[in-house]
Design goal:
The chain is built from 13 helices and 15 strands. It has helices spanning 4-17, 58-70, 72-75, 90-95, 117-125, 180-191, 203-206, 221-228, 243-253, 267-280, 285-288, 304-319, 330-337, and strands at residues 22-31, 41-45, 50-52, 82-86, 103-110, 130-135, 141-145, 157-158, 162-167, 172-176, 195-199, 214-217, 234-238, 260-263, 291-292. The two termini are 25 Å apart. Mean pLDDT is 85; it is low at 326-344.
Length: 344
């Protein structure tokens, strides 16, 4: 399952290739409460079909009605993009279902060859973070590779002359070990738009494991990590309970740019794992400090599905910049984290 931005771009690509007129809509700015954040995408074709969203539904309905009544030109009157603002008045906010005080500003552009949707999709598939500049006078687009963490990266900017947006590769989850827990984690991650790879060199564990949309690898975990080179949008979780496999993945993942590296196991096993990684694999203390172990938020997990939920919740929290506080005492840590350690 692809993330929503990729689905929007792929639909826009298909419509344009088929000669079907369409409009790409971008949330450029918001004020107050807003159902969708800046940078959100939606595509509408000449039949009023949509992929993606820019609000809770009412703005989409308004745009669809415009297109059905007057064609694509009714939403975007010329080759130049159109800027629309919804929710300026209390009446509009009520009419379009915006939260109290919410205002959203949209940029609508006709899909054309110079929209560079093909090139943007290719950049995303190659896991390149890309800046997209839309000229508001001509509708032409220019693309530029950017590094994660550059000033302004990820924050759309709208001026009188251009709209600048950023699109990056999909979030990616690498799971070490094929089993019930990895299956539940994979299903949740796919529904959240993650690209998922499951690695297990043990043929007996892979034999009955399969899930549409997941890449299954039989490589040794360290070879896989070195090949995939986890970036700042990658999470790695070790699930096998076998140090010969988990440690191989963790030693290289902790030296990568992965935003999350975690492993299941008891608190005692976690302490032993840190010691092994330090003594046998020369993983520095600064890297070990980033290891989430036991992985997952405390929700009283008992079943593989519940444990998967706790781990996926922690991954999403870290991805969104929210980090759980460290326990003040050993006793507090045991109370908070021990129940998450049950084997899959």
């Amino acid at each position: 399952m692809e993330d929503l931005d990729t689905q929007v771009l792929r639909a826009a690509q298909a419509w344009h290739a088929a000669g079907l007129p369409g409009v790409l809509v971008t949330v450029a700015r918001t004020w107050g409460s807003s159902p969708r954040p800046p940078g959100s995408l939606m595509a509408i074709n000449g039949r009023g079909e949509t992929v993606g969203s820019v609000s809770g539904g009412c703005i989409e309905d308004d745009l669809i009605q415009r297109i059905r009544e007057g064609g694509v030109q009714a939403a975007c009157a010329s080759e130049a993009p159109t800027v629309l603002r919804y929710g300026i008045s209390a009446d509009q906010a009520h009419r379009f279902g915006l939260p109290c005080g919410g205002t959203v500003e949209l940029v609508l552009e006709r899909l054309a060859e110079h929209s560079q949707v093909d090139a943007l999709l290719q950049a995303c598939q190659q896991r390149r973070s890309t800046e997209r500049r839309l000229d508001l006078h001509s509708g032409r687009v220019s693309l530029r590779d950017v590094q994660r963490g550059e000033p302004g990266d990820g924050v759309p900017r709208l001026s009188e002359s251009e709209l600048v947006t950023y699109l990056g590769p999909r979030s990616r989850l690498i799971l070490i070990g094929a089993g019930d827990l990895s299956r539940f984690l994979s299903q949740m991650a796919l529904s959240l738009g993650f690209e998922v790879t499951v690695c297990d060199p043990r043929s007996e564990h892979r034999a009955s494991w399969g899930l549409d949309g997941v890449t299954l690898s039989h490589e040794m975990p360290d070879d896989l990590i070195l090949r995939l080179r986890p970036d700042a949008r990658t999470a790695v979780v070790a699930l096998t309970h076998d140090p010969k496999l988990d440690d191989l993945a963790l030693m290289d993942a902790l030296r990568s740019e992965a935003f999350y590296v975690g492993a299941i196991g008891s608190r005692r096993n976690t302490a032993q794992r840190r010691e092994r990684l330090r003594e046998h694999f020369d993983v520095p203390d600064a890297a070990l400090a980033a290891l989430h172990g036991p992985a997952g938020l405390y929700i009283g997990s008992k079943t593989p599905a519940e444990i998967a939920l706790s781990i996926m919740a922690e991954i999403v929290a870290v991805k969104n910049g929210i980090h759980r506080p460290q326990p003040a005492t050993v006793e507090e840590g045991k109370a908070l984290r021990e129940p998450v350690d049950r084997p899959a």
